[in-house]
Amino acid sequence: MPNTVAIKTSPEDAVAFLEVLAVAGVVLDRLNNVMANTELADEMGLVEYGRLASEELTDFAARARNSGETLTEEISFARNLRTAKIELSVRATALDDSHLILVVEDRTEAKRLEDTRRDFIENISHELKTPISSISLLSEAIQVAVDNPEQVKKFAKNLQRESKRLGSLVKEIIQLSRIQGGDLAASVEPVDLSTVISEATDLNQFQADSKNIKLTVNVPEGLVVLGDAELLTMAMKNLIENAIVYSNEDTQVGIGIREVDNFAEITVTDNGLGIPLDQQERIFERFYRVDPSRSRATGGTGLGLSIVKHAAINHGGDINVFSRVGLGSTFTLRLPLLIETDNSSGEEQK
Questions:
Q1: Domain at 11-106: CATH architecture
Q2: What architecture does CATH give domain 109-181?
Q3: Residue 267: its pLDDT value, please?
Q4: pLDDT, position 282
Q5: Which of 33, 94, 200, 323 could form a disulfide bond with 329, CB atoms 3.0-4.6 angstroms apart?
Q6: b/e string for 137-173 if b means 16 or more Cβ within 10 A?
Q7: DSSP letters along 242-259, please?
Q8: Whole-angstrom distance, CA of residue 324 vs CA of residue 273
Q9: Mean pLDDT score of the chain, rounded to an integer?
Q10: By the 8 A CB rule, do 70 and 6 touch?
Q11: Does domain 184-350 sit in CATH 3.10.20.600?
Q12: 164 membership: H or E segment, kind and range
């Protein structure tokens, strides 16, 4: 016996009920004319000139009516060629003998998060496999070469390198997970950017000295943002470290800040290899590397710039890059400055 649900209510009453629930809903007659719909359905662009705006939705409604059962289906929908597709979960059920009601949920963000989570797990699995396999092979090699001190010393050094790489990878995964959570409320405070730059520079000084790279800092004092000092220091450390890694020896990396329209623009400039134009949009993706061989040699995890991107977003800012192959790169991190209001005069003060 078909599982038909007869609610015994008018299209208008059904839509009014869905409005209270803040749900997108559309009521159709036998010819798929729209008899009533919620405001959210209009906002999502589901209805156009008294009809469903998508052939996929119309076909689904026809299948549901013919089946006589309540059906649920995932449907991709775009208003037109100029708008991005949204992912819908659509449930259809009979309102009465003449009318069908569609209840629609926008699953675009949920699907994006599911895809991101799946890709993240796949990437982690791949990235962890390499150092773990290397550690396993090197430990076996040490056991075999136990009577050869030179070989043991060589394998032990490589083992230490791979262990350090694995530790860095795990640490940055944890950091990225924390940043992507977006919950900074507990650690937000006024942060002096000159202090952030000073600490980030100090953390990279040894690596810069090892390549004889001069770190030139031009940072005025008194520029303050509201944020998490630890995350901002981590982001700046990653930007400076990235500049050092992709620069040749005996060169220079410049770090500066300027104020533009109540934003602090922090720039990190190098004279290194540069980034091909077709790869500049991808460098902020997790685990993406412009030069995988160099990343392996330096122990890079491919997470540094992704951490910078999410730190910028969580602080209401953004990050961009200007680069030319062979001429170097300039990364610009923009953060909104903390504007204090003078209660006595109502004027804004930095």
A1: 2-Layer Sandwich (3.30)
A2: Orthogonal Bundle (1.10)
A3: 95
A4: 78
A5: 323
A6: ebeebbeebeeeeeebeebeebbeebeebbebbeebb
A7: HHHHTS-TT-EEEEEEEE
A8: 8
A9: 81
A10: no
A11: no
A12: helix 149-181
Measured distance CA(95)–CA(17) in Å, rounded: 13
Res. 121: pLDDT tops 60: yes
Residue boundaries of the structural domains of the chain = 11-106, 109-181, 184-350
Q: Which two tokens stand for residue 66?
A: 């013919």
pLDDT of residue 287: 65
Alpha helices in 182-250 (DSSP H): 193-210, 229-245
End-to-end Cα separation, the chain, in angstroms: 72
Residue tagged 């995350």 (tokens): 231
Contact 280, 323 (CB under 8 A): yes
Using pLDDT thresholds of 50, 70 and 90, give the confidence band for residue 180.
Answer: low
> How far is 87 from 106, CA to CA, in rounded Å?
6
Residues across the chain: 350
Which of the four pLDDT bands, split at 50, 70 and 90, describes residue 186? low
